[in-house]
Amino acid sequence: MLDRIVTLINASSATTIVEIGPGQGALTIPLAKSGARLVAVEFDRDLIDPLGKKLAKYPNSKVVQQDFLDFVPDESLGGFVLGGNIPYNITSPVIDWCIAQVDRLERVILMVQREMGKRIAGRPGTKDWSPLSIMTQLNFDVKYEFEVKPASFTPPPDVHSVVITMTPRRIAQRWIWPDLTAW
Fold first, then answer.
1. 1-37 pLDDT per residue, tens
2. Packing angle between helix 131-139 and helix 91-100, nearest 10 degrees?
3. With 70 as the cut, is the pLDDT of residue 171 above it?
């Protein structure tokens, strides 16, 4: 599963990656080994030092201790790929964050709870089509990549997960909210 995600991210020395919640580094280390410029945003301060030690031999990698939803990417990052196994309770706020950063994102690869992934990738006329589908797909082309069984994790969660890819739409393809303050 990790190899499939690294392949989707297409990590190389020419890539800048922001990872949401690297945890103990299961995905982080393969991304760092690629030579990519990597910023791992971790909320849990107890994980910062151990992860920092693991990344010490990868000079293009750093760990930032911060709530991802408060993270503002430095302009020096330029365009970047966003990836991570996001906490399921913040999926919608992460999607909102992505929409706000759509002009800087090259691609987004997220592991989310299966039901949420189906909603994000939902199509008109299906039970999964929702306001979340609409808002996301106004800004991104969304692809439902593959499912991840609970047994892939230790300990196994009570939910199934999926990996989705979101590719920003070009400006001409996006719907831009009108400024209604002048009315």
1. 888 998 899 999 999 999 999 999 999 999 999 999 9
2. 30
3. no
d(CA 39, CA 54): 14
Dist CA 84 CA 18 (whole Å): 8
Task: Tokens for 119, please give them.
Answer: 């909603």
| Rounded Cα distance, 120 and 62, in Å | 30
3-state secondary structure of 178: coil
Phi, psi of 148 (to 5 degrees): -125, 120
By the 10 Å C-beta count (0-12 exposed, 13-18 middle, 19+ buried), 36 is classed as buried
Distance CA 118, CA 116 (A): 5
Is residue 8 within a helix (H) or strand (E), and if so which, with residue range?
A: helix 2-9
Q: How many residues does the chain have?
A: 183
Q: Supply 65's token pair.
A: 């201790």
- Helix residue ranges, H only, 28-173: 28-33, 45-55, 91-100, 114-120, 131-139
